[in-house]
Description:
Layout: E1 11-18, H1 22-29, H2 37-45, H3 51-70, E2 77-86, E3 90-95, E4 101-106, E5 109-117, H4 155-207, H5 217-230, H6 242-265
Antiparallel strand pairs: 1-5, 2-5, 3-4
Amino acid sequence: MPQVTEEREQIRAQARYVRSSARKARLVLEHIRGKSAAEAQSILAFQTRAVARDAGKVLKSAIANAEMNNGHDVDELIVLTAYADEGPTLKRWRARARGRVNRIRKRTCHITITLSPALPGEIKPKPERRAPEPAPEEQPKKRRARSRKPAEETPAAAAATEATAEEMAAGEAEAEEQVSEQPAVDAADAPDAAPAEPEAAEEQPAEEEPEQPEEQPEASADAEPEASAEGEPEPEQPVEADEPAEEAADGEAEDSTDEEDKEADS
């Protein structure tokens, strides 16, 4: 018993005498065959070949026929067939050398696109693009401490280290000797230096006698405000160490007069 197949509804559009070869048109139509009408439009919009514009016009015409004449929606249509037949070829001639000519063939084609309502499950839903998950932060890896083996010392290196150790020991010994000798020398010089300081202190008051100002008190009184105004230092006061020196001198003078009186009496 022969099987009965239901004929599908077809909406057809055709462009005749398109100025392109059928071979070039077929390369473009292969991309939209079996696709949905909306997807086919987007594919032809981004094709770089010139014939893709003519194929896009034919597809647009077929979609308009389906909507106006049959009441279908664009999302329900698929491209059932898409093909290009050869059309008439325009022959032209081009002059060449020695009176010869070359033939020029300007080929044409007929582009035909047929749409049909899609059967259930024929149009595959587009997969939803999910937002990329954030990459987990990489924690820095802890580096393990490598145990390095001590390098074997060569005889020359061992001798050099021994020589440096001996030099360091000799230098430390010399430094200790110098440190031990230095306090002994300071102790020997200390008794001589100690009495020298009082002698210098006794000679200083005898040699240095303060010069008393002979100026009039009025002039000094006038000069003090000026000095304080200008910020100059005040005149130095006489050293208190001079009083014992004067008393010692008066005592020596009295002793000398007493001795002279005793000699005169004798």
